Amino acid sequence: MKSLxxxxxxxxxxxxxxxxxxxxxxFVVLSGKVVDSADGYPLxxxxxxxxxxxxxxxxxxxxxYELKVPKQQCEVLFSYVGYDDKxxxxxxxxxxxxxxxxMFTNVTQLADVVVTGVYERKKESFTGASATFKxxxxxxxGTSNILQSLSTLDPSFKMMESSQFGSNPNVMPDIEIRGKxxxxxxxxxYGTDPNQPLFILDGFETSLETIMNLNxxxxxxxxxxxxxxxxxxxxxxxxxxxxVIETKAPARGRLQLSYKGxxxxxxxxxxxxxxxxxxEKLEFETLAGVYKDNSGDPFAQIRLDDLRNKRLLEIERGVxxxxxxxxxxxxxxxxxxxxxxxxxxxxRYGIGLSLGNVDGVMENSGRHTLExxxxxxxxxxxxxxxxxxxxxxxxxxxxxxSFAEYAYANPYYRKYEADGSISKYLYYxxxxxxxxxxxxxxxxxHLNNWDTATGFGFxxxxxxxxxATKALRLRAKFGLxxxxxxxxxxxxxxxxxxxxxxxxxxxxxxxxxxxEMIYEGDVAVTFGKLLADKHMVNAVGGFNFSxxxxxxxxxxxxxxxxxxxxxxxxxxxxxxxxxPNYNESLKRAASFYLNGGYAYAERYLLDFNYRLDGASMFGxxxxxRNTWSVGAGWNIHKEPFMASSDFFSLFKLRGSVGNPGxxxxxxxxxxxxxxxxxxxxxxxxxxxxxxALGNAGLSWQETTNYDxxxxxxxxxxRINATFDYYWKYTDxxxxxxxxxxxxxxxxxxxxxxxxxTRGWEATLRISPVYKPSEGIIWNIxxxxxxxxxxxADIGNSFSALxxxxxxxxxxxxxxxxxxxxxxxxxxxxxxxDPATGKELFIKKDGTYSFTYDVNDEVVVGDMQPKVExxxxxxxxxxGLSIGCYLRYRWGGQVFNSSLFQKVENIGTQEIYNNQDKxxxxxxxxxxxxxAYFKGISLVQRTEKSSRFVMDDNSLIGESFNIxxxxxxxxxxxxxxxxxxxxxxxxxxxxxxxxRVERGIDYPFARTVTMSLGIxx
Amino acid sequence: MMRKHIFIAVAVFLVTLxxxxxxxxxxPYDKISQGELLSSEQGYMKLLNxxxxxxNSSMLYGGAMSVEMIEIMGGAYVIGTDNxxxxxxxxxxxxxxxxxxxxARMNETWNKAYSLILNCNLLLExxxxxxxxxxxxxxxxxxxxxxxxxxxxxxxMLRLFGPVYSRNPEMMSIPYYKKYSVVPNEPLPASxxxxxxxxxxxxxxxxxxxxxxxxxxxxxxxPADGSSTFMYYRNLRLxxxxxxxxLARSGLYFGDNEAAYRYSTEVIEAAQTxxxxxxxxxxxxxxxxxxxxxxxxxxxxxLTHSQRNKLFKDYFDPSxxxxxxxxxxxxxxxDLIYGGGATTGGSQDDFRYRVNWVATGANKxxxxxxxxxxxxxxxxxxxxxxxxxxxxxxxxxxxxQDIEAGVxxxxxxxxxxxxxxxxxxxxxxxxxEYIRELYGEGQLxxxxxxxxxxxxxxxxxxxxxxxxxAIFVVPLPSSETDN
Lengths: 1016, 483
Fold this sequence. Notes:
By secondary structure, chain A is mostly beta strands. The longest helix of chain A is centred in the first third of the chain and has 23 residues, at 2-24. The model of chain A is unreliable at 11-23 (pLDDT under 50). Chain B is 50% helix and 5% strand. The radius of gyration of chain B is 25 Å and the shape is globular. Chain B has 23 helices and five strands. By secondary structure, chain B is mainly alpha-helical.
């Protein structure tokens, strides 16, 4: 109290003295313009004052000011929120120094900042493991979507290749950051992938599909948050990692127009298919005994001989149909983005239009998106309002005949009849013959079938910020997303699927409507201040709530009589016994969060996070959950003992621990729900019974996450290295467990066991040539990642899954304590016995046996590679850039299902389909005793054994690119702002140690894209 | 000052937290949430009725446990050997429980029974803590019936999957679920399950002490004013006498003859006062145009199944030929059940023969489940679960150690069936009477299992399967032992 009084006295006496001084002396008027350092644009509302006095003014709309100062030496202070204060000393002579005042923003450059979506922190003082990429880096390695590019740039970010769906543009990929934390099988149960990371777009949670649809040219930066210290601020949604995407904010200045375009062509990659030609197939069938009658009926043998001769004759005529080429085409892609931006300091605006036309490599497969967005930023004094609105439209179509059906078709059939027409069957058995007809994939493909979807939605994100003081900021956000999707499929009545149905039941139309409404709100207070020049203190505290409401309506109709006329109104009826489908889920969450960071002299760093989450999916007993994390770091390069040398520009050790959770689960699993037993009522009226048994005591799945990391930059920025070692411990796991029937339900969502994962990842970038000032840089980069997981304490919880895996034809995943989620379980094989042609198995105790016993299963491989990563190089020479990225995988195994199902295990059903060439060769026979495969047989069942487990080492040409940024003088002559072109290719080659069919339902593709960027 | 701020901050935090909790309490719209359903008396009534309705499932008493699976195991039907006609039935008649098909079927029945037990337990547990106000005796009646349902389902699973109780009462049998749990219960020795069943039935009987069936009978028509039917049609619910009859049935099964006799005679006495009268002779004697084949007035507890005629059409209708049709072995019928004179007590004058067996060609077919002419009648929906006749037979068997002593009860029943009295009673003749009375109602297998006697597929003893654990003890479903 006393000190305050004293201060007041001093201040007031100073004021009195100052005013007295003014009265005596003359004034000088200083005038000039205040501009931004980055773009030279005038700053409006900058306060300009004589230090230590109240004498001051603000800049006008043109950034101009006039300030009366006393005619004596003094200091003039320029201050503006968001900018570093500037002080210019006036010494009575240097009035000209005030004519142009340049101010620098106090926000550090993007690359040096970690954007978590909740707060920003200088990378140097952040203790979490994260990686940030700018749009140019993303675009340089690929143009298809952000996530594809991220997987090329960061080893921990994996986009799982889908052997089933190949390059289908409409199938959303499975994505993982640092491996899986949840038990497989939940995706099938719940529809949401429990291993999917959280996506944050401009500060709001969003869906994978939105990110996949987002035009890359709109993106400013992407940050991947990997460890607990960086993700814990997202609490119980963060255990799979977080991807934070920021779109570009409009730049100020006069109206500027830019255009960015990508034009690509994709070609199907069928090199993994190894199918028989017509001669081989007929030979195989003959050897398999297809044309040998066993019934003893002489007429039957004559018929079979006849059939074989007919096919042979066709082959002699040169029939060798390559069916795989039929449904594919070159897929053309063109994407455009136009963005107009401008405005002055108070109001900035950006209006954009993006069009994406992606045509897949299969006929009728496309994904067309159109997106409009309006960005507005209004700033007045200490307040800033910004609003981002985007409206999107989507149109999707899928082929109605799967690629697999073409792969099945035998090469000795002709595609077309002699008159050019398409027949419904490739083979139709004669009357009275016990045989199946073989339908023609072209028939079903040429019909008026469709599988389409359209979507329309908008997202509006509003952010209000109040810069209360330089250190204290309040931010309130509200985001609203509305998305309506409409899916329709139609199968023509002439489709072969309806062959056995009555005339009035043929044809099928289904309509599904998905309505989604999401809102999210957030209020946060941010504090950041450097105290006593040494103590940097950051703090964020806030409250967040979200509401996600989703409704699905659907119905189907049957009985079309005509192929051409396909309106639903032509349907005859609803399917008999069918009822409309309605499904609804409402998820709500509310959270409080707190983040703090402290750095002492930029050397010793400490971060902590705390979040309290409540979610409606969890039972009343466990509604709230705590997430915490602590991180510590040491900037060795800032230590005084290192100060003498500037060899290291960055040398940081960091570590963190925390327990982020996962709530990618179904909305109502904690609650018991009931349904009407609608099949019967009685004299007492209606009845109700249990629909689903909830588990009110269900605990949240949480992952305790440890990370140790090191960041190094040295030798004049020429060598850049990051290394992270982590271990994760998910406990409890949440899984749907099969229960004894006596519990009254056959499965229940339960907490069972835990999973441990250990892994490391490393990134190394070396620049042998590093002359940024001349625009010449040559980089070589190598990144690698490796991880191992195992289950613990699961006991017998998954015995039902294990049993069904053992019984299934190809399932090789098992759940045992100590087992890896990616392990391949099978009985060991010693190969084919040359004497008998039978497979010799190795039992658990090491003895040999011809008898297969499923209980002899052991781990015979692991699908997870020992090391996986990318090797890349890039060269910048003036405006020219060349890049090349190779993906390598080493040390993993794969169960070769092509060998298992298309070489052996070809039964009386499968023989109708075309098969792998290897089914004919290297088979055991009296003459070829040293064979890898059993003898040809249609009745012999082959069991899962280590014989089909192969090393999967591969090298993939993931991305090659060449680009050119036109120099200023040419661009100016063309009256443009900037101009660049780039050519990118993806997946151009692939060398693997194992040959497996990939792209079963949809082939993979190789893509070449040309990109153009023009700023007017 | 600082303290005050902290206090305010904490207060705001707590208020927000508690309002959050409310906001986070989401009720599904496309499904019925437990909270919403069980917030009223009607909700409990609907859930109880839902359980009764589900008893009609083909996996339980709408098929497997009444006329199909269990009756084949009870030797009631001639099962042919032609697989294309009889499918998997030959395996079952040979007691091959290990086939994929029958394992799956047993599993299905087991799962269904226990899923209804879970429903009972959810109802009972919620009832325990509910704040809903029930009118009149409804609380007691709902609780009593749910307890009785739980006991009855456990009892039938014990009779099917448990040991031959008279020989191995301490053998591990089935789990008894007394409350809803996400952790499985371990199987118990049969005697402990028996104690639980008896306990639940006793409690149910006490709760149902004021059951209107004791004063007003079954009330087999809806109230004229259109008010709630909940306390009507008592024979379609586990009423006081049904629970008493279950105690008689279970007492006999568990070897407690004293209880069996006490409870069965209590039901008989009540029936004699007119609550469960013997079927009107005019409907069953001579050649009635529209016979009451199910003897509806004698049903102490029955299910009401809206498509009961499917039972007849799917299993017994001779027009199904050349598909399989269930019927009694001709020799068994003519030599023992409805023939054989004084030694067997079999007579073709028996009402049960006259109305339920109709000749087509050389064979007689079973018409108990064929509809009466009046299509709207509730009689056409009845599936008997416990009938009066069984009480007479239980009384006869349990009156004394000496089975002879019970002959009078058998004769009372026989006189109501229009046949002459037996001079004496033996275990054999008692079994014939059981077959006559309860044929096609799912009780015969349990009778043979209880008595540990040969299963009467035919009249010639050497062709009938001899008693053994292999035929009487169905192995527990694999879902139970594996998980």
